[in-house]
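fyi for ur records
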Amino acid sequence: MTFLCIDKLAQSIESVGTDGFYPSLSGFLRSVLPFENVIALAFNGESPPTAVFMRAFGEDVFTLFESQYLPVSYLLDPVYQFHLQKGRQGIYWLSDMAPDNFRRSRYFKWYYGRIGILDEITFFQPINETTTIAISMGTDTASGKRFAARDVQNLRKTESAIRALIEVDWGFRKHTDKMQKASGSLVSNLREIVAARHQIKLSNRQAEVAIFVLQGHSSPSIATKLSLSPHTVKVFRRQLYARCKISSQSELFAMMLPLLKEISAFSAP
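which gave:
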């Protein structure tokens, strides 16, 4: 570790429990892994995440954060879903958390395809049963640079220090006062709002399949998630499309996006 890294680490330690903690921690992380944008999110249950800190050093990849991510996109985001699945603490590439068909999904093109993030690595830190801190670091399409393997290895060497800092800082804070757990579940909420807005009654399985398709899962991946056969998943998918009177993922996305926005608005603290 260089003297610069050590100095930045010392600043992070000194700022624990203050408003300067995440800016200082970001400085330390960037001295180890040269990123071009960073965002720290606090997830609590199914509620919309709270942005603890964000900064772009190159292209402004956060232009759609307030207008698209917080109102609706987070519901389909791999990091949010990994949080709901109670993923283990660690350092992950976006592809490690995302569904197998994620980069070919309509959602990826609609959101990630517009914000300009090229490469992304997330430090994922569960705090307790309901709360997770996720610090996502990225490079942008303007620079065209990807993270070097050596820098990622250096980041992994600091993992225990980062984890300890976040845990201690959380002990000084009361983020949970700003967040509240949403009632119900995404599946049940989606069924209710589809029935109310379109007079379409979906079964639990059909609603589950709809959500997985929107997130970017393929039929084999959905089958694994739901402990079903791929053939059964295809049957539910055909039933879903038939009930909604659509024939493609793009049509499903166009139909469900406004409804997801309503669900998100209802869940927001």
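The chain is about 50% helix and 15% strand. thats all i got for now
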